[in-house]
Model the fold of this input.
Amino acid sequence: MKPGEFELPFKKGDLLPLDYKSVWEAMEECQNLGLAKLIGVEMNPVWQQKTLREFCEKKGIHITAYSPLGAKGTSWGTNWVMDSQELNDIAIAKGKTTAQICIRWVYEQGVSVVVKSFNKQRMEENLDIFEWSLSPEECEKISQIPQRKGLRADIFISNESPFKSRFELWDEEV
Ligand SMILES: NC(=O)c1ccc[n+]([C@@H]2O[C@H](COP(=O)([O-])OP(=O)(O)OC[C@H]3O[C@@H](n4cnc5c(N)ncnc54)[C@H](OP(=O)(O)O)[C@@H]3O)[C@@H](O)[C@H]2O)c1
Done:
């Protein structure tokens, strides 16, 4: 955005071009300087980002699932992960909670998980994901969950913005 204060929804004309390469290089510099332990990108079960994950795997870029439960209850999150019918069905059949199915799935993808709870019982629940696993059928079911991005990047695309089409902004997963 142009420097200064702005309110949401922002004015499209206030968007500035984004130089992804320089941003990533600056993040690498932060890591080299010891300002960040690790740098990476984010995912969750309703935004699995398969294309991006394959790219990251090839490049050795680590992935972290921040807000893996979809940040339910926040002003910018959604209920889509916790209300997912597929995750709920697996949870009931397996005697686990939807959150546990979600966190275990993320863990099985080989990525880091940053889940948050202020509730002691839910913290314990969220940690209890290591002594069991998902079956191949359950993993297949999760891979078929219809994909929805919480904050769609379409809001950045317009004739007044530096991004005239979605492909000028990112790949097909916007
Ligand atoms: N660096 C980044 O770019 C970035 C981006 C996003 C998020 N983050 C960080 O990642 C962490 C997690 O993200 P988040 O808090 O946005 O989202 P989240 O972990 O997906 O969801 C947290 C919400 O889920 C609830 N919850 C937690 N465990 C639950 C369970 N077992 N059953 C039912 N509800 C449960 C929490 O409520 P209760 O507290 O009441 O349990 C809270 O409302 C945070 O520390 C956040 O700051 C970082």
